[in-house]
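Structure in, sequence out. Go:
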């Protein structure tokens, strides 16, 4: 999943795409790349890269990255003039630092939606025609909450359908 915090402090959340090369070339992703000023991701998402040094040369978002983890790597991954790594232990710290780094641009949150409900202004879910028998239950931690959503946009890109919702507060 991924999410975005806009300059107005909005957050979008979307499922990762199985064919990233196709997605990166889509208008949907190109807009996200243009408008993203920083990225927040969880430790599990960060570890999905077989070589963390590859982010510097191949990651679509060449911006400061804020990794939420209690296990800071022994060696910091390779950085370049655009991409840097900051490891923080709370969602709140990651969001705050990423918003400062992003300036007028958005903060994209990549991975599961394990951000606190009070931080989310907008939810973007990408749906793919794939049924999984097991995996991470993305909204399980919200069982005691009632979160009202208002559908604001639908975009179809190949087999993927993205739906945007505003979180009503």
């Amino acid at each position: 999943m991924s999410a975005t915090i806009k300059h107005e402090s909005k957050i979008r959340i979307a499922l990762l795409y199985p064919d990233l090369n196709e997605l990166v070339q889509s208008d949907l992703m190109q807009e996200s790349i243009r408008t993203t000023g920083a990225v927040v991701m969880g430790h599990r998402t960060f570890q999905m890269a077989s070589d963390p040094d590859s982010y510097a040369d191949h990651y679509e978002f060449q911006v400061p990255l804020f990794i939420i983890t209690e296990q800071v790597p022994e060696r910091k991954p390779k950085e370049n003039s655009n991409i840097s790594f900051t490891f923080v232990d709370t969602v709140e710290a990651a969001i705050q630092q990423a918003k400062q780094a992003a300036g007028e641009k958005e903060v994209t949150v990549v991975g599961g939606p394990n951000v606190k409900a009070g931080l989310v202004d907008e939810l973007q879910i990408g749906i793919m025609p794939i049924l999984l028998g097991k995996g991470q239950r993305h909204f399980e931690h919200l069982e005691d909450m009632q979160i009202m959503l208002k559908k604001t946009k639908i975009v179809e890109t190949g087999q993927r359908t993205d739906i945007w919702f505003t979180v009503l507060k």
